[in-house]
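Margin note from the TA: students keep mixing up input and output lines. Inputs are the sequences; the output is the structure of the whole complex. Example:
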Amino acid sequence: MLSVFERTREIGLLRAVGMKRRQVRAMIRSESVILAVFGAVVGIVVGTALGVALAWSLKAEGITQIVVPVSSLTAFLVLAALLGLVAASWRARRAAKLDVLAAIAVELGASRGP
Amino acid sequence: MSAATAPGPPGPEVRAARSVELRKTYGTGQAIVRALDGVSVVFDRGRFTAVMGPSGSGKSTLMHCMAGLDRPTSGQVYVGDLDISTLDDTALTQMRRDRIGFVFQSFNLVPTLTAGEDITLPVDLAGRKVDREWFTDLVGQLGLGDRLNHQPSEMSGGQQQRCACARALINRPDLIFADEPTGNLDSNSSAGMLSFLRRSVDEFGQSIVMVTHDPRGASYADRVVFLADGNVVNELVRPTPDSILERMRIVGT
């Protein structure tokens, strides 16, 4: 993980060497979507495993059929991706508006201007 | 204040970049600060120019304006024949990507990328194909061959700066701006870095502008431009460390 300082500096550097605002937004959004989907996948795998285990342990109680609701799991996966996208939108806009010079001068301090 | 080393009026073919009456002010009224006070300067193509001056002389502001990182209050900046003062943010970003190479003093590399990925960053951002031959050549010359899969945290300061050099050169830009590139390096790494910059001018015809306060570093350049109080106050062609020190005393920087 990067600190706020490192992230600011990183985006400033990327902008300096030629990343367009649009590309910054896309980068932040895709990171967020990847993170959200990753989280959802982990949740689905763990949840499904636990659910199956539970159902299996209740075999004696007469629960013999195990059904994994693939379609609703898929829907939640898509929902997670969308939420990731929405959650990142403000951050993406802010990152794209970052003042390049201020960001790369963060630690240069004295070397900038008057 | 014009500063061409070539005889006669400099044609577009000998100019890598130039500024015309460049002004940058901060604040207003009584508190106004003139970081650049009407600077007209020419950086020649295929030459190594050093910019010197005390802190607050405007040398970094000049570099930032000429590299399209900052916008001047008034005046023009030409990179090649392109007037960059008229460009919007997207066009300016594209200009930096394709026509300018950057080497900063520190934090030059993206922490999450490997050296190899960082070097090809400007090409990848443009969605173009990397010139593998040129890449291999650069990496070899800079001795980075065994560092390509390393992240910045696994590299020495000198290796990081060399990596930044390779990235600056990968697009064969019109101009490389180096801002105190050896500021955080020991003398051995500094000398290696400066020799490489020198060589990239002599052998690849690269144009370089380097901001520095080190007379020894500046002596690698073909020409030194001295700034004070937001203006070019002097310049020196074919400098030596001694002649630079002497000139620094004269101009009081």
